[in-house]
Every structure is written in C-alpha cells, then in structure tokens.
M23 family metallopeptidase
Amino acid sequence: MRWLLALWLLALSAMAQTHTVAPGETLFSIARRYGTTVEALVRLNGLSDPNRIRAGQVLRVRPGEEVPLPRGRLWYALPVQGRAFGLRVAGYREGWAEFLGVRYPLWPGEEGLWGLLAVGALQGPGEYPLRLHLEGEEVVLPLRVAPGGYGQETLALSPTLERLLQDPGLKAERERVVAACSQEGPLRFRGAFLRPLEGGRTTSAFGTRRRYGTLFTSYHEGLDFAAPLGTPVRAVAAGVVVLSERLKVRGEAVVVAHGMGLCTGYWHLASRQVRVGEEVRPGQVLGRLGSTGLSTGPHLHLEVRLRGVPVDPAPFFSGLPLP
C-alpha cells in the first residue's frame, strides 16, 4: 500500500525548529526567545562552548517532530545540512527508510523501530522526500533540510602538500576508507561519544568551506583537535577496528565501526596501537597524536561517516541525534 503524506504544514513547522544566529545574539537570549534553556540548546547542538556561537550559525531549538502514520506514529529529529538525524517509528515490526538516495535500516528497540540518517554537508537546504517502507506500506513525506551555517577558511600549503593533493590515488584512498566501514549490524553503543583526547582544543569545525593553497575549494569532513605530539588518541565509543594502516593523505589512520553503518576515523596519527578485527571499548587508546599525511601541524582529525556520508561529529558528544 502506498500512502503519500503531502503535509505542507509539517514542512512549515520544521522550519521553526531552527534559529539562525544574528549579530549580537547570545545562547541565553536565544533560549529565552524559544522558551528553552541554555543547557538544552548545548545538548541539542553538541556545543563544546556555549559562549562561542557565531552570526549565521544555525541552531536547533526543538528536538523534532511527530507525525501520524497509517498504523502508528513517526518521530524524527530535524534534518540539518551536514548532520546525522534520528527517527523512531511506532506500530510496525520491521522496515527501512530512504532519504537523499541512501537506504537506511530500521532496527527494533524498546519503543519501536529506529534509525540514523545522514544529510551531506554540500546538500542544498530545501525540501526532500523521506520514504518509509513499513511492512508493505510506503509512506512518503517531505522533510525540510535546514542550512548548516558553515564558515570559510584558506589553508596555506607547502609545494609538497600541494602535490599530494593532486595525487591520482586520492580517490582510491577515499573509496578504501568508505569501503572499510561495515554497513551491517545494530549499533554497538548508546549515549554520547567520549572525547578522543584529553586537553585538546578544537581548531577547525566540521563543514568549514576550505580553499587549499592555490588549488581547489572543498569542505572539512571532520573535527580537528590540536594537542601535543604523542597525546593518546582514544576510541569515542565501542566498536571494532576495520582499518589500521598508513595512508597518503590521512597518514597513520584507524577506522572503527560502531554498527548501523556508523564509523569513526582517526587521521594523522604518529603511531597506531590496534589491529583490524580488534574489538575496542570506549576510551581505549587507538594510537598517538601526530602530523602524518596531509597535515600542517600536530592534530587529530576525527571523522564520522554514516553509510559513507561524512557528518558533523560535534552533536554526538551530547548524545545520539534522536527525537
């Protein structure tokens, strides 16, 4: 049975779930405007410092939406450019979801089926169909993707690093990293990510539009932490190591699979201390911070991919992006 939910009011209400920061605004003033708290906004947006928000930044101000289904209900977190978002379905025993051309499994939980979906950082803001396939029924409804409000930066590269960016093997390296991430199995953890290192500071946010030297413009696919050379780099959550090797651009690299197609990558290490197939616990040391590969100084590049799509790691430090 095909059931099309053409809910324009749904799309309009989804627009009201975000706020674009204006010059001079604080998190406190935004919280008062929407009848919420600073603490709630920090958790909802994965903010590491509530005093550091910037004009043009898009913040989630409400956790999500609820929609009736033919035999149950759907709850979903607001889709934002460059972020993962969760959904939960009650009234059905099995199914899957499709969004932006990617198919996502829905796993049974205590309160129904649930899943994690991704929005690419370069996906244009606007309305896109979510397709739910639930026990023979197809439900289609429009979801509005909000802008991510990303900044820009230019990185000065040495001639050696510029030549590295032109290496024809870069595409194959990316494909290898994506292929290493297991797409099968339920999520291996609940709750929030642990910080990958102690004492580090964030130096480059996810999604920042980058120009590399005299070459091309791209965007930052992870979150950078600066810390002294040799600082222990730890697993942010339980999982299994699916890649541990030296790569040209990513340097000494480790990828950990967490289930449901969710993987974390740890790039530019000085050394690695885990092997492929090893199960790791939250906080276990994976290696030591370094500056290998395409790197302009000692730092950890933490990357999160959901079924191959890079998404912002920051919200995961406040918990899974569930409605």
